[in-house]
Amino acid sequence: MAGLRPVWEFLSAPGRATIFQGFHWNLLALTMFAGREEPFVVCARTSYGVAIVPAAIRRSDSTLRLLGERLFDYRSFLHQGDDEVLGKALATLSQLGRRLEVVAVRQCDRSPAMGDLEVSPFATAPSVHCADCAPEEFAAKHARLARNWRRLERLGFRLRVYDGKNSSLLRSIYQRKAAQDPASLFQDTTRIEFLANAAVFHPRTFEIFTLESGSHLAAALVTLRDGLWRRFYTGWFDPALEKYSPGITLICEVTRQSLAAGLDCDYMTGAQPYKLRLATGSMPLLRLCATPRQLAGLDQTVAPELRPAG
């Protein structure tokens, strides 16, 4: 991985990929989830391009996935140049004799190099774009939530913003989510520690918005700054205040502030009603599957300079 860092960082530069394709995010996932995922990262270099496939063998079922365990919303292959170089990198995976499954690939990241691989709808990622809605227009559309905000303020709650250095707050949010939901991903403390570590390494990437009154936390929202996007990664609210809808009210206010700052808002995986209530658009997310034979068929030539790294 260390040897791939320069080319990885070039291929995942802002605007070319999402934060989940970043070198450090993948290196941290490789390290912290090594007991669950055996890395098989492929770098293909040719005279006409370069590609990286950040693959891993999931130990629980021996299938091929991409690094990130269950914490990366968006998965993608990295490449620059002719699509053929990505085809060569993907074909290298066929030597493992395992089925590949990737969840989820954004529609905009789908490449012709994927050929005839199996692609099916997985979910959508609702969003609000600055170009679609001015902050004043957005606020006017959601006046009821603005009233909720004022009611919460009268109860003494105030908006607070923290960065990733506040590890104790971040852990507390995920512990609260786990306590409320037996099926939560964050019943697994390793996942909480992954995010806490990622936040320490990238404190300015993590923006944590809360509604607080003294020690009482009404709602919290963990977001990730990704170029000109603010990605709404995790939300939580106190069910005792459910009648005030503090969770969606906080999301609405952070969205309004984001639009005023020139940031697009990504509500991320899932078309839940509260997201659709606010969204002005959505990105289709795809499930990509391939048999070893299908992977091998992506390269009809002898592949030069293919280097599996694991």
Protein topology:
Layout: H1 5-11, H2 23-32, E1 37-46, E2 49-58, E3 64-66, E4 78-81, H3 83-92, E5 100-106, E6 118-128, H4 135-141, H5 143-154, E7 158-163, H6 167-180, H7 189-201, E8 206-213, E9 216-226, E10 229-237, H8 246-260, E11 264-266, H9 273-278, E12 281-290, H10 292-296, E13 306-309
Parallel strand pairs: 10-11
Antiparallel strand pairs: 1-2, 1-13, 2-3, 2-4, 5-12, 6-11, 6-12, 7-8, 8-9, 9-10
Helix pairs in contact: 2-7, 4-8, 5-8, 6-7
Q: Could you give the distance between the termini?
A: 8 Å
- C-alpha-based Rg, rounded: 21 Å
Mean pLDDT: 95
Let me know the CATH homologous superfamily of the largest domain.
Gcn5-related N-acetyltransferase (GNAT)
Helix share, percent? 25-40%
Return the string of H and E elements: HHEEEEHEEHHEHHEEEHEHEHE
Sheet with the most strands, sense and barrel status: 8 strands, mixed
Description:
The chain is 32% helix and 31% strand. It has 310 residues and is an alpha+beta fold. The protein has two domains: 2-122 and 284-309; 130-279, Aminopeptidase (3-Layer(aba) Sandwich), CATH 3.40.630.30. The protein has an eight-stranded mixed beta sheet. Strands 1, 2, 3, 4 and 13 form a five-stranded antiparallel beta sheet that branches. A hairpin with a 2-residue loop joins β8 and β9. α2 packs antiparallel against α7 and α5 (143-154) crosses α8.
